[in-house]
């Protein structure tokens, strides 16, 4: 049966705080889905700095038999004008930002596929029901891969690991642009990957490419991103990457670790899994730090997080019997204050109502078991979480 794709060319216009723009070609989109994806592009346009539009080929397809929510294939360029490093692959949109011009005017920067068969929440407020996937959240995730949060780490059928040598055949099928011969040269993301001992995996004097040694590292559950900005944003600890003992191409190595960055925390948007009801519309400080380390300029008007005492605060912590929450609202708006466990399951909704502009307080007599929890504050313009220990 022939599929008819509706082609819509969209420019996400530069808004008051926008420092970059997106040009999205939509294939098979619905009006509801388009609104959510436009919102994700708007969020990124207010964060990133580039004079060259970032081009996305967005495909809204039934992928129920393939099992993914979304997938992104990023275009790449190396040795371009103003390139900071030679023989290193950069995402084409970042290369364009460095060069100040569109280096591949007839190609997209990234191809994104989203599964139209999923039970999606199309709203842009992050307040979807617990049985729906938040489309803004997933679109933010896939766009971030196209911005360079991406690695071509792989393990072949003989168990040999490599960077930029073995590419899953499905990648070529999904890409609208010719996949270049990467020739074993690292992606910019790869240069920051280290093991627990601080050894850089892209150092071929230590890890031959390809080698069994790389495969062992890719499945060690002990890989980290050692960029200065990302480490600073993570309390001066290199953020842990997802490297489970069972390797999965397109998932392993190129995500933040699901355990260290639990659902509903600031940087959960770039972990490998998204659950129904999980909504984070503000890329966290570690994610932004990684993009800075890759070379992206970040808008000076973008605030990753306000100081805790201006967003959400509570005392005492650890908590024994009762706790007092205080939080700031910039306008009269709907506010939800909830408690989650570290697996991302909602334990209790403490508050769900309209609040007035200014500082608000709420007292809670603790009625949950001892342990570590996440306090999550959601409103029209804030998504903020903090850890709370109950004695």
Quick tags:
single chain, 391 residues, alpha+beta, Immunoglobulin-like, 2 domains, 8 helices, 17% helix, disordered N terminus
Can you tell me about this structure?
The chain is α+β, with helices and mostly antiparallel strands and 391 residues long. The protein has 2 domains: 7-298, no CATH class; 308-390, Macroglobulin (MG2) domain (Immunoglobulin-like, Sandwich), CATH 2.60.40.1930. It has helices at 31-45, 92-99, 135-146, 169-174, 212-218, 228-233, 285-294, 308-311; strands spanning 7-12, 22-27, 48-49, 54-61, 70-74, 76-77, 90-91, 110-115, 120-121, 133-134, 153-155, 161-163, 193-195, 223-225, 240-241, 297-298, 312-315, 322-329, 333-340, 346-355, 358-365, 371-378, 383-390. The strands form 8 sheets. Strands 1-2-4-8-5 form a 5-stranded mixed sheet. Helix 1 (31-45) crosses helix 3 (135-146). The radius of gyration is 21 Å and the shape is globular. The termini are far apart.
């Amino acid at each position: 049966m022939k599929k008819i794709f509706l082609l819509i060319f969209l420019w996400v216009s530069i808004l008051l705080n926008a420092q970059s723009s997106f040009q999205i070609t939509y294939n098979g989109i619905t009006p509801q889905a388009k609104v959510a994806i436009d919102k994700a592009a708007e969020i990124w346009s207010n964060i990133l700095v580039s004079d060259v539009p970032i081009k996305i080929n967005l495909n809204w397809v039934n992928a129920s038999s393939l099992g993914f929510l979304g997938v992104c294939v990023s275009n790449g360029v190396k040795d371009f004008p103003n390139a900071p490093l030679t023989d290193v692959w950069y995402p084409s949109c970042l290369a364009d930002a460095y060069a100040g011009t569109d280096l591949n005017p007839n190609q997209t920067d990234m191809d994104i596929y989203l599964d139209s068969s999923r039970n999606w929440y199309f709203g842009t407020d992050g307040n979807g029901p617990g049985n729906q996937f938040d489309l803004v959240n997933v679109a933010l995730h896939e766009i971030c891969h196209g911005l360079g949060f991406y690695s071509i780490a792989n393990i072949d059928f003989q168990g040999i690991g490599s960077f930029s040598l073995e590419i899953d055949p499905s990648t070529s099928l999904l890409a609208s642009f010719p996949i270049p011969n990467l020739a074993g040269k690292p992606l910019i993301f790869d240069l920051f990957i280290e093991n627990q001992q601080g050894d850089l995996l892209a150092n071929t004097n230590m890890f031959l490419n390809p080698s069994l040694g790389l495969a062992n590292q890719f499945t060690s559950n002990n890989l980290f991103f050692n960029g200065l900005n990302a480490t600073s944003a993570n309390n001066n600890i290199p953020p842990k990457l997802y490297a489970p003992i069972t390797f999965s191409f397109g998932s392993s190595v190129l995500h933040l670790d699901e355990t260290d960055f639990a659902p509903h925390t600031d940087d959960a948007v770039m972990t490998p899994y998204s659950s129904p009801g999980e909504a984070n519309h503000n890329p966290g400080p570690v994610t932004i730090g990684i993009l800075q380390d890759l070379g992206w300029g970040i808008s000076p008007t973008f605030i990753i997080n306000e100081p805790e005492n201006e967003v959400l605060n509570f005392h005492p912590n650890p908590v024994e019997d009762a706790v007092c929450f205080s939080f700031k609202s910039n306008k009269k708006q709907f506010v939800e204050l909830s408690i989650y466990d570290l697996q991302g399951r909602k334990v209790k909704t403490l508050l769900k109502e309209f609040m007035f502009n200014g500082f608000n307080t709420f007292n809670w007599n603790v009625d949950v078991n001892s342990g570590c929890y996440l306090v999550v504050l959601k409103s029209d313009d804030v998504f903020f979480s903090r850890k709370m220990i109950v004695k």
